[in-house]
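Propose amino acids for all 311 sites.
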C-alpha cells in the first residue's frame, strides 16, 4: 500500500522540493517533494475585526463530505464545543468557480464572527468528490484539519436518490423509480452519478496527494447516528480540543428515532429532512450494490488503514 501511495505522489509531483515543507510531513512521506502551487493570497487589509472583540477567521477545520454522510449532524454536534465557531451555510468556495474567483478575502467574509481563541469550521459536502478541491484547500493552508464523515456506500446512494426525489417532488417534477436509475439491462448502471460519489477510494486518493493521512479524520456516520458521544469524543481528540462534549448534550427523541442536542439547556433537533426513510429496494438489487462496492470499499480501507462495518 505504501508503495502504491508513493507511486501516486510521484506521479503528480515532479517539481523540486521547497525548503518550507514542514518536517513532520516529510516523516510521513520520506523523500517526497510537496505539491507545487502558490499559496492563495489573502489581503491583510481586508476588514475582519469587529469592535465587540470578535473577528472573522479562515477555517482551521473543514468538513469536506460526503454528501448524505451526516455532515449537518456533525457540524451541529461540533458546535456544542465552546472553542468552535461554525459557518451556518455551505460556502462552496473551493468547488464553485464563481466563488473561488472572488478569492480568499471573499471566503473570509463568509465566516462567522468568533473570538480569537476559537477555531472556525466550515462544511461543504461536495468538496470531497471534487477533484480540483484538495489542491485549492492545500494552497489556503497545508496544515488545515479535515473531517470526512462517511456511511455505508449503498445507504449513501439510496439517501442521495431520496434527496433528489424529494427536491424534484417539491418542484412538481417527475422522478424515475429507483430501480430504473440503479439498473440498466439488469446490471448496475455505471452511469448513475450517485454511485461514483460512493467510490470513496477514488476521492480520498485525490486528497492524499496533498494531505497526510494524519490530517484527515474519518467519522463513522452510521455510528454517529446510533451513538454520537464516542464519535464526538474522537473528533475532540483529533482536533486537540479540550474534552467538553458529554452525555448530557444528547437525548434520544423517540418520535424522530434520532438523537437531538442539548446546548446550554436549549434543545434542538435536526431538520425533518434529515433521516428520511429510504425507498424499499428489491433485495436482489441491494445484493448487486453490495457486490459492486465490495472491492472499492476494500481499497478505501487500505488507503486509510482502517475498516468500517459496511455491507
Ligand atoms: C486589498 O484590499 C483593499 C481594500 O479592501 C484594496 O483597495 C486593495 O486593492 C487590495 N490589495 C490587493 C493587493 O488585492
Ligand atoms: C459581534 O459583532 C458581530 C458583527 O456585527 C456580530 O455578528 C456578533 O453577533 C457580535 N458578537 C457578540 C458576542 O456581540
Ligand atoms: C464513474 O465511475 C466509472 C467507473 O466505475 C467511470 O467509468 C465513469 O467515468 C465515472 N463517471 C464519472 C462521471 O465520473
Ligand atoms: C456536561 O457538560 C456541561 C457543560 O456543557 C456541564 O454543565 C455538565 O456538568 C457536564 N456533565 C457531566 C456529567 O460531566
Ligand atoms: C421530538 O421529535 C418530534 C418530531 O420531529 C418533535 O415534534 C418534538 O418536538 C421532539 N421533541 C423533543 C423533546 O425534542
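Proposal:
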Amino acid at each position: 500500500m505504501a508503495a502504491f501511495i508513493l507511486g501516486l505522489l510521484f506521479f503528480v509531483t515532479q517539481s523540486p522540493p521547497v525548503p518550507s515543507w514542514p518536517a513532520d510531513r516529510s516523516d510521513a512521506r520520506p523523500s517526497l517533494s510537496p505539491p507545487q502551487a502558490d499559496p492563495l493570497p489573502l489581503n491583510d487589509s481586508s476588514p475582519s475585526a469587529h469592535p465587540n472583540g470578535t473577528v472573522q477567521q479562515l477555517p482551521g477545520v473543514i468538513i469536506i463530505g460526503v454528501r448524505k454522510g451526516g455532515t449537518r449532524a456533525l457540524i451541529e454536534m461540533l458546535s456544542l464545543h465552546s472553542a468552535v465557531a461554525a459557518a451556518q451555510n455551505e460556502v462552496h468556495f473551493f468547488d464553485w468557480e464563481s466563488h473561488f474567483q472572488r478569492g480568499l478575502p471573499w471566503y473570509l467574509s463568509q465566516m462567522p464572527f468568533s473570538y480569537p481563541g476559537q477555531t472556525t469550521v466550515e462544511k461543504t459536502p461536495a468538496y470531497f468528490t471534487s477533484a480540483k478541491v484538495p489542491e485549492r484547500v492545500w494552497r489556503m493552508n497545508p496544515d488545515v484539519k479535515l473531517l470526512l464523515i462517511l456511511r455505508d456506500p449503498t445507504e449513501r446512494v439510496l439517501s442521495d436518490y431520496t434527496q433528489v426525489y424529494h427536491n424534484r417532488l417539491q418542484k412538481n417534477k417527475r422522478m424515475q423509480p429507483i430501480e430504473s436509475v440503479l439498473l440498466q439491462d439488469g446490471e448496475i448502471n455505471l452511469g448513475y452519478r450517485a454511485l461514483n460519489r460512493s467510490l470513496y477510494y477514488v476521492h480520498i486518493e485525490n486528497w492524499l496527494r496533498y494531505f497526510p493521512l494524519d490530517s484527515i479524520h474519518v467519522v463513522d456516520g452510521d455510528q454517529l447516528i446510533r451513538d454520537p458521544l464516542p464519535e464526538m469524543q474522537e473528533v475532540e481528540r483529533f482536533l486537540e480540543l479540550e474534552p467538553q462534549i458529554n452525555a448530557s448534550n444528547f437525548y434520544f427523541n423517540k418520535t424522530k428515532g434520532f438523537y437531538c442536542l442539548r446546548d446550554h439547556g436549549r434543545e434542538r433537533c435536526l431538520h425533518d429532512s434529515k433521516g428520511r426513510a429510504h425507498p424499499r429496494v428489491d433485495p436482489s438489487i441491494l445484493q448487486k450494490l453490495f457486490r459492486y462496492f465490495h472491492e472499492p470499499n476494500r481499497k478505501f480501507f487500505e488507503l486509510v488503514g482502517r475498516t468500517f462495518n459496511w455491507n
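Residues 28 and 212 are 7 Å apart (CA to CA). Residues 1-36 form one domain.
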